[in-house]
Design brief:
The chain is α/β, with parallel strands linked by helices. The protein folds into two domains: 2-160 and 342-394, Alpha-Beta Complex (Quinone Oxidoreductase, Chain A, domain 1), CATH 3.90.180.10; 164-338, NAD(P)-binding Rossmann-like Domain (Rossmann fold, 3-Layer(aba) Sandwich). The protein is 26% helix and 21% strand. It has helices at residues 39-45, 136-139, 152-156, 161-171, 187-198, 211-219, 232-241, 244-248, 284-292, 315-318, 326-332, 344-355, 374-382; strands at residues 2-8, 11-16, 28-36, 60-68, 80-83, 130-133, 141-143, 179-183, 203-208, 223-226, 260-265, 293-301, 335-338, 367-370, 391-394. The longest helix has 12 residues, at 187-198.
Length: 400
């Protein structure tokens, strides 16, 4: 079959690889109809992880069951399914507690496994024509409809970024009436924006520098903040300070709470320096969040921070070690939630919001491209420029 194969820093190719096969009675083989490129795929593409040459990429996968192992009970050939990017068994100590991101069964080297991702097990990704799915009964979420219908783009986003955006709001403790600052208007940041709105947030500020992304955030009901126009924390504080209704509602002393109660990092360790966006500052977003979130507030950190970064600026950064403002964080009494998303915890509920018409995550999708165009898709998406918010690869689409 054809698959997207990592060839080295900033190089992928579409090559013929061995077809997947049933390796255990609980396996399922899925024919892929849509596979999205994730921002975290770009970390590997840029050589900023331990990804090895020859890996098949792709952890956001949607398709139709082509074959099911003899022990699979609830999933049948022809079922339409989406796969959470976490590969989990469903029965280990962590899975039964809902921490599907830290399954103890599926990765021989460490807790947690995923399709086509560095350090997360030996599994090939789904930017390919077919994908092997371990523990098919547990890992396949059954879907209505047919490939290519009105839900196709929505459903593929259930594999990762919609649940990840929702997880960010869970970690940040967003509830009805919450004030929220989200740093990063890439796919996850936009899904965090959508999720904050679904959870009833009163004010959502989204920080980025790409006009198309900020426009999408505004369409979702957020207030866009362009960090190239000045310190984003000061911009948020000034907007709140200049709102007469906010000021008039405050009792004496409450002006000390002009920030927001919930902060979300949807950027990660490749954050850009606000003074010089051509350079990275891996703690820029974390520093700003600690500044803008009020005392007693909460942080949700879902932007990726890798334990090893070959492209880090110094020996500490290359080992995932960063200087953080722990004194301010402690003195403000901030709660911090961090880590990979346990996708299955949210996936079914978000699916039902899509079916009911309450959520349309596909509004962020910007391009559909044939699988054979993956090298160009990666190159263009890696520029993080205007017009590229989310690319979906289609194995059955013919190149123009």
């Amino acid at each position: 079959m054809r698959a997207v194969v990592y060839k080295g820093q900033c190089q992928v190719a579409v090559e013929q690889v061995e077809d997947p096969r049933i390796e255990a009675p609980t396996d399922v083989i899925v024919k892929i109809t849509s596979a999205a490129i994730c921002g975290s795929d770009l970390h590997m593409y840029e050589g900023r992880t331990t990804a090895s040459t020859g890996m098949v990429f792709g952890h956001e996968n949607l398709g139709v069951v082509a074959e099911a192992g003899p022990a699979v009970q609830s999933i049948r050939r022809g079922d339409r399914v989406v796969l959470p990017f976490n590969i989990s068994c469903g029965f280990c100590f962590n899975c039964v507690r809902g921490f599907f991101n830290s399954c103890l069964t599926t990765n021989p080297d460490r807790p947690g496994a995923a399709y086509g991702y560095a350090d997360l097990g030996p599994y090939r990704g789904g930017q390919a024509e077919y994908l092997r799915v371990p523990f098919g009964d547990f890992n396949c979420l059954k879907l209505p409809g047919q490939p290519g219908d009105q839900w196709e783009d929505d459903f593929v986003l259930l594999a990762d970024i919609f649940p990840t955006g929702y997880h960010a709001t869970e970690l940040a403790k967003v509830e009805p009436g919450s004030t929220v600052a989200i740093f990063g208007a890439g796919p996850v940041g936009l899904m965090a924006t959508l999720s904050a709105m679904l959870r009833g947030a009163s004010e959502v500020y989204v920080v980025d520098r790409v006009p198309a992304r900020l426009q999408k955030a505004q369409q979702l009901g957020a207030r866009p903040i362009d960090f190239t126009q000045g310190d984003p924390v000061e911009q948020i504080l000034e907007q709140r300070r200049s709102n007469a209704a906010i000021r008039e509602a405050m009792r004496p002393g409450e002006e000390k709470m002009l920030g927001v109660m919930c902060g979300i990092d949807a950027v990660g360790y490749q954050a850009r320096d606000q003074q010089d966006p051509s350079h990275e500052d891996p703690t820029q977003v974390l520093d700003d969040l600690v500044r803008v979130v009020n005392p007693t507030g909460s942080l949700g950190i879902v932007g990726v921070y890798m334990p090893k970064d070959p492209g880090g600026a110094d020996p500490h950064a290359r080992h995932g070690e960063f200087e953080l403002p722990w004194g301010k964080l402690f003195s403000k009494g901030l709660q911090v939630g961090v880590g990979q998303t346990p996708v299955k915890r949210y996936q079914r509920h978000l699916r039902d919001l899509i079916i009911a018409g309450r959520a349309k995550p596909s509004m962020i999708v910007s391009q559909h491209m044939p699988l054979d165009a993956a090298p160009d898709a990666y190159k263009d998406f890696d520029q993080r420029g205007d017009g590229y918010t989310k690319i979906i690869l289609k194995p059955d689409m013919r190149a123009a």
